[in-house]
């Protein structure tokens, strides 16, 4: 009797919930939490409409019947945990409709308890958020595409990422392709990893015809083309074997346009079932097509720029710039290996007799043979100069001699030059890479020095760099002596790094950074030439040169009607205390017609301990003239409230060394203190070296609103920053 009463009470409750569902327009379902399988006991009409299943197909089943390949186990477990614990929760999960189409479902889990009857049910509100998820995916995809282009990722990788994002919003059998079309109107596979290899091989290189294939029609008609049955559609009459072999049924394709409106390819989706696009599908495809167009355009531009910047045009080998960059990245891995410079005694004689093009042929052939002889993928061979190849490889010290001998064996065969066979006499200079080394330029110099020693020996020779031959100060003096001529020849340029609003990423201002590439010394780090300039009395000349370039850049922006933003310039103590410092600033800004408010002077905190009274006078003079000031590298030197509160400074810059160690509690406390100190003194705190999203979020939580770093922008030449 008691059991019958329970069942009767449950029916009453279910009937009450059913009446509630009639008035409830949001789709929802109710499950019985008391039964282990948590069956669905009621769902409203909105829910059935959303999933495409009928009431008979739904009631009594566990909600997992809506799961599929794209459903994350973590999301499913979270729903189950909420039900089991009787707690509320919101879960975003991929569910599947009856026709196999996945959709993003936001499930709000709410327990329903009837204590007087000792019954427990769970209400699950359902909300289709696919449109929102698509929009989020498009934004993320666009950012990742730009980031990938900047990092030099291959176009095929970028396009494949676009295809994978698109596929995730269609049925599991969906296969996306990007077909590029050349000037002669032939297909080239841009991305099609989901398609069988045989399909790719059949399509690649085919002529693009208007009445052949969905993509061909979309290209020529310059609009969306939908084929619901490829097995019978006229467009696929010539490829029925492909259609049947790979189980293709429906296909949609849109043209990809460049900025001039010219069609340069197609984006296609293939399905194993008949499928017609909805309006939101078409809008999604249009957005995907736009991102694909951007990826192709900018990747092609980047490829052209990178080729000019990093490839030797005569041999096709990577050039000196590329090698230097790669060596710098190599050292970050903190592993063992070597850098080698390779030359041949015969090069000069061949160039004298046959010309430079023949010399290029020799270097190209040596490079090819070295690459064939390499037994490691973790290496690089580049043309460092006309007569020298450079290489690096990662391996334990003990294996280097054997490895180099192996490389030489690959060059014993003669090279054909004109009508003669030339046997080469190779010279190799080697610098060993150890895990603690950080200076890539120094390693390159060591390898070059070792090559010079090898050239002094008779016959084939391998020399290792063993000790330091140069005095430390000699290096500084040479740099300082070259610096004056470099400034005269405009070799020292300016890079700008934006300071941004940490919350929005909006550019607020810039910091000017000196960069020097010398024809003789190569690229010289600011950590080398700036201290050398200070030590040898040339720092004022350097900083005045930087100021002049910045003002000239600003003037050009004003002339073109572009928005002007403040630029910060680093000033040394020697320059700051010089009697002509402020008058020269006023003269220069007046000459270029730039209001002083757009120039900020960044001074290291150590300046306060040189002469606090004089420093205070200079700061006040700068403020009266309209300039703003900033204390750079705050917290790393002689931080003192006694001098800081006396100086009319607008900004405190938190040194990057603190930001990079924010995970340490002590460092976090220091950063928090600096931010609070700046706020209490009516100054703005600016974080340097913001490199990760976690850094940004932590700084915002601490109250820091402005930052700069690689998360937002790397330092860039003036011309690149011109339109920012």
Automatic annotation (TrEMBL):
**InterPro entries found in the cross-reference section:** Biofilm_reg_signaling, EAL_dom, EAL_sf, GAF, GAF-like_dom_sf, GGDEF_dom, Nucleotide_cyclase, PAC
Q: Return the PROSITE patterns for the record.
A: EAL (PS50883), GGDEF (PS50887), PAC (PS50113), PAS (PS50112)
Supply the Gene3D superfamilies for this chain. 3.30.450.40, 3.30.70.270, EAL domain, PAS domain
User: What name appears for this protein in its UniProt entry?
Assistant: Bifunctional diguanylate cyclase/phosphodiesterase
TM ranges = none
Q: Where does the PAC domain lie?
A: 89-141
- Where does the record place the GGDEF domain? 335-467
Q: What is the lineage of its organism?
A: Bacteria, Bacillati, Bacillota, Bacilli, Bacillales
The domain of life for this entry's organism is Bacteria
Residues of the EAL domain: 476-724
What is the protein's species of origin?
Planococcus faecalis
PAS domain: which residues?
A: 40-69
